[in-house]
Amino acid sequence: MDTTEGVRADTTGRLAATVDRLRARVREAHAAADGRALIELARGVLVERLRCGPSAAAAQLAALAQQAGRPQLELAADIVDQASRDTLSEAGRRFLDHVMAEPPDSPESTPVTVRLRTAESGVLSATDTQSVARSLMEHALAPLGAVGVAVWLAGPDSSLTLAGCAGFAADEDRRWRYVPPGVAVPARQALTQRGPVWIESLAEAGIPSIGQRGAPDGSRAAVPAGTGGRILGVLEICWPGRAEAPNQQLWRQIEALAELCAHTLDTPNSGLVLEPDDSVGELVDLADSLRDPTLVLRPHLDATGALVDFRIEHANPRFHDLGGRLRGEVVGGFLLEAYPLVAERGGLFERVERVWATGEPFRAERLDLTALVGQVPLTAAAGVGISRHGGAVLLVWHIEDEAAKLANLLRHAQRLGRIGGFEENLTTGEIAWNSELFALYGLSATADPVPIEQLARHAHPDDAVAIGRFLRTLLHHRRPASTAFRLLRSDGVARHIRVIAEPVPEAASVVRGAYQDISAQHWTEVALTATREQLEHSEQQSAERNRLTLLLQHAIMPPAQNTLRAPQLDVAVRYRPAEKEHLVGGDWYDAVVLPSGQILLCVGDIAGHGIESATSMVVLRNALRGLTATGAGPAQLLTWLNLVTRHLTDRVTATAVCALYDPRDRTLRWARAGHLPPVLITEAGARTLPLIRGPLLGGLADPDYEEGALTVAEGDVFLLFTDGLIERKDRTVEESLERLLATASREATTLDQRLDRLLTHSNSDTDDDTCIVGFQLRRPD
């Protein structure tokens, strides 16, 4: 029996050992599988980051582990943790740059990610907010040098309740259990600003807070803790002495811890009784009992938990939409969809969002509410009240009644128009003025009003006659009257005033009227009259100037036809001035037989219009005629004419074509200065001469002009013209020249007929001067 029991016991022991061994192998297998999976994930990260293959990634991981002196599994965990970049792991990496230096053998040298994971585990397993505060202090904040942490719960009235704390004296939690609304503490500032607050020194800032007795000159960081756009509380961290302000990375770490606290405050584990968030039944009953239009709003969050809008859960029976919509058309939709214009900065949506975030109610006696009615914005002034109740927001408004609205509009119009109204009982002497009339007279609101019969005492003496007529018409003849006068105020300011008044039909001794400050209008009329007179004088001068310019131009180049006849040669010119007198330009021409027997043909165009262009044209035309006496060729003549343009005119620029025809050998020499080339018409048709080199006059100090030459045959026609003949705004110069050549190629009996046809069929649209000079070698009779 004993032997049998011993055998059974031995067998049981062996079975138990086998089970333990198998379990150990299973755990090792799971761990190995997890390790291999983690290494494969790390290799995948390296493949994506390094743009390499799997084998290269495996070799790179092994090389990195060997260089760092760390196992591949540990390095792989760090790589995957970094790639995942979740809130806590990111905070852990950033903590490395800010944690105080620790000795290598310090027991606190545990990796920061491990400490944060430990803090997270402690928070999730905590049974109340006090445990949350201790876990944050021990695992996450102590390495930062912090000596205390407080987690505040925000109340619906902006009060603060201490939900948990760590690192402070034993009696601090009792002394700071509750902070009423309006008390300036760091947590209150963070709640009001809806953002992080840094206080370098509590003593210098003069702000009380928990733990101040132990660290009177310490630094504080306060960060709102909220989810879904709602601030549930504030995380406050205390340092014993002055510390540097956190940088952006450290703020993100603290904000991550605050978000972790917000999740604990939003759960029953906080140990605090929060307002119900799921039911709005009581709030709907409250809204229906109110006498003003009311909306019950619930926050609407996106996939990331961020607040994007508010859903309209309920509208009470007294709901009145500005656009005339019924309750059913609005309920169930979103606030921004129903009223998109409330999203403007400082508008209603921003107010609702702030109330939802902080729980602090909002009241306004007057707030503009705008709705779109047929794409037309309609604005109404209303008194608005917004408050948070549990998980919903109550929006109440009150539209001004018609009488109050009209009164406000009247006051606004009187203020803008600087109009003051009055009513006076001539029998009893009672006078009623509005506030704007006291301002017009420069009197205080408690001063005695001025009777209408004493108006002349406060006016300029020169206006006494006009005021006397006004008073006789109003008071004696009992008819409406008005007049304008200069009001001399007691402060020395003079204002131009218009007064209009009439008797009240139902009360014989009562008159009503209004004063209006027309000073701005008066001085505007004075300035306008002076400007009008100055403009008329300028127009008269301009017209006289244009007339003189036109007379000068016509005296030099008359528009009438001018035909020059020479032996065996017909020379004709045409000049057409601009239709508008103010566009008198500087186009000029010349055709003259020189003493040498040669014939000078030239056209030119001065840039611009007016008397300056006309006088410059006279200078160049006469200078060229005088220079031809030297016997120089066209290129040399243009070189000299360029010097005249630069030194003997008002720095104008011009274009020109100069040609000399010698009838003895029928040769024609010509040169151009920035001008269109001449046209030669032969039996083969019309063509432009080559575009030889030649810059415009007045542009360069030492230009180089090229000279062209040709032999003229019997019947050939040579044409010079200015751009006023062909220039159009809707086509290029090349297209205009092609049209001119087509017109010039047509047969003509005489040279005059040909030039008249060119002018008749010119379709230029620039209204510029036009000059045409042509000669034709006659065939023998």
TrEMBL record:
Pfam families: ANTAR, GAF_2, SpoIIE
Name by which UniProt lists this protein: Serine phosphatase RsbU (Regulator of sigma subunit)
InterPro entries for this protein: ANTAR (IPR005561), Bact_Sigma-Reg (IPR052016), GAF (IPR003018), GAF-like_dom_sf (IPR029016), PAS-like_dom_sf (IPR035965), PPM-type-like_dom_sf (IPR036457), PPM-type_phosphatase-like_dom (IPR001932), WH-like_DNA-bd_sf (IPR036388)
GO molecular function list: phosphatase activity; RNA binding
Organism this protein belongs to: Actinokineospora auranticolor
Superkingdom of origin: Bacteria
Annotated ANTAR domain residues: 19-80
Alphabetized PANTHER family for the sequence: STAGE II SPORULATION PROTEIN E, STAGE II SPORULATION PROTEIN E-RELATED
Keywords: Hydrolase, Transcription, Transcription regulation
